[in-house]
Amino acid sequence: MNRFTGKVAVVTGAAQGIGAATARQLAAEGAAVAVLDRNAPDKTAEQITAASGTALGYVCDVTDRASVESVFDRLAADLGQPHILINNAGITRDDMFFRLSEDDWNAVLAVNLTGAYHCAQVAQKFMVAQRYGKIVSLSSRSALGNRGQANYAAAKAGIQGLTATLAIELGPYNINVNAVAPGYIATAMTAATADRVGLTAEEHQRSVAERTPLGRVGQPEEVAAVIAFLASDEASYVSGQTLYVNGGAR
Length: 250
Hints:
This protein is α/β, with parallel strands linked by helices. Helices cover 47% and strands 15% of the residues. The protein has a seven-stranded parallel beta sheet with strand order 3-2-1-4-5-6-7, with helices on both faces. Helix 1 runs parallel beside helix 2 (41-50), helix 1 packs across helix 8 and helix 6 (188-196) crosses helix 7. The mean pLDDT is 96.
């Protein structure tokens, strides 16, 4: 498929995990991809170019509005004005609520929610002008509540509210805004969660798989496939939605 030929896509938090898988998926389908991350974005960009795709890496701190504006100006000059934004950048700072520090609360909200606000607000200027755009943001199953993740759950619930509101405000400009809420995906982030509870990544995955109807945990590429659908014109009448990708868990 070449659903994204002629399109420029921006993926934040794209150095690893779901972000890297999404950048590779969009590039494989024809997009020129701006790979944004605070750390080592060039690795993903190099993987894409090695596979005959088009990508450039940009160091960007999504919590810093000036950094976001500067990077978007640069990528628009380098690749063209963005048509697609994937708000994937995220961190965890897990702890039980009674111990949760204000610094850890603020850090998670800043990256996971305020970062999406910064990027969407900058990206929509290009999208409104061209009367076309796709914004897909990463929420999480944790938005429904998760022990030891009050900060992360609040941020990811906020993504769902932001998504629904932007769909209303940006819809008249032919901009679709949706969110994806993964369950347990085998990434460095979930490996860190396993470590927090005293398990290896493999032990933690087995435990989660036993409680999941499909009997396994998810892979980054499976989330990337759903993101790519929502970023494509195949989903042209889908907006304001949060789609859970969690193996049937409730």
